[in-house]
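User: Sequence in, structure out. Go.
Assistant: Echoing your sequence, followed by the structure tokens.
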Amino acid sequence: MSVSSRFLNSILSKKRGEPEETAWTERIKQESGARPSFANHPALAEIRLLTAAAKKLGVGDPFFRMHEGRGGARTVIGGKEYLNFSHYNYLGLNGDPRVMEAAKAAIGRYGTSAGASRLVAGERPAQRELEKALAEVYDAEDCVVFVSGHATNVSAISTLFGPKDIIFHDSLIHNSVIEGIRASGAIRKPFAHNDMKELERALEERRGGREKALIVVEGHYSMDGDIANLPALLELRDRYEAFLMVDEAHSLGVLGKTGRGLAEHYGVDGSEVDIWMGTLSKTLVSCGGYIAGSADLIELLKAQAPGFVYSVGISPPLAAASLAALKIMREEPERVARLNENARLFLELTRAAGLNAGSSCGKAIIPVIIGSSRKSIELSNRLFEAGINAQPIIHPAVEEKVSRLRFFVNSDHTEADIRACCEITGKFRKR
């Protein structure tokens, strides 16, 4: 079942019992001997029933809204401008003229496609230049870029680990990591979010008897906006002879004085971490993912990772856009400072308004925890009516008791934007 359908099921179950049979479902039941069709798929039937019921009950559906321009501090939906807190554009580089010009120049020279797998079709300069620039950010020997952030985790983890290994992961880790562990066949052992004591106990009890062990965390957690304890993780990694992998999807451009991520935040040399993972769709305003680390690690992935070997290479204009954005990030650290100041103010005002921001540290992601999928979506709809675009995060993406709205802050938001959003959210929440 999709996230949106589970959401609808979750909130509608509080308003009514199971949906009644409709003429549509009766027709499906009566059909027999016909050509197989996904129209008869039980999940599709449930999705359509729930969508119809949600419409009838006036709950509304906040998903798949059509944006008519670039997503920045503001966006246009249905011809109306909205204050926007739903995009990852942390340093405001989506639509930056320098980034767009780099993409246009790459299109003019290489076209829009990489043509085929880089293994067989060869490289484009922008692809390797981006990888070298990312490796430098992480003090790593090399880097490899994939065409999908989700596929990066799935492909890398399933290539590097197998059934004889064990993988310890934070309980709030991204779905892509879970899918990668599943594909690897390794034993999966979650530990309570950011709980180093529980991780230590799990390593003590379960590490023995396994060939390889991996610890996986996120640098900046995408749902809660808090950060991993890198020094403690490195100490446990060394003591139990494990590998450490850090997912930097929401860390690059956000953590550290110049945006170099979790290692810079803690003043740790990036080469201390075995596997750095990140995406190109947040700060680097493009699309794709990457792994940075030792030359041996990258050589192995380039030869064996299915998501690289059997996939087309990253499109040259996308690589060029990310490379330009990365260069701007390195040259203009004031963007990172402005982002962090905006997020700090947002967190401060959120809590002053009596809203529950959970464990957010005020770097770029601030949740407003509601504790009900239905109420989360209703608050999102109220804000949308007031000109604020902020998406709900509901069960099963998070537990029902911590359903929430999630606000992404970027460097282009003004103080007035932030104050208005927090004031209106607080007012509507009290109602």
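User: And one key feature?
Assistant: The chain has 17 helices and 13 strands.
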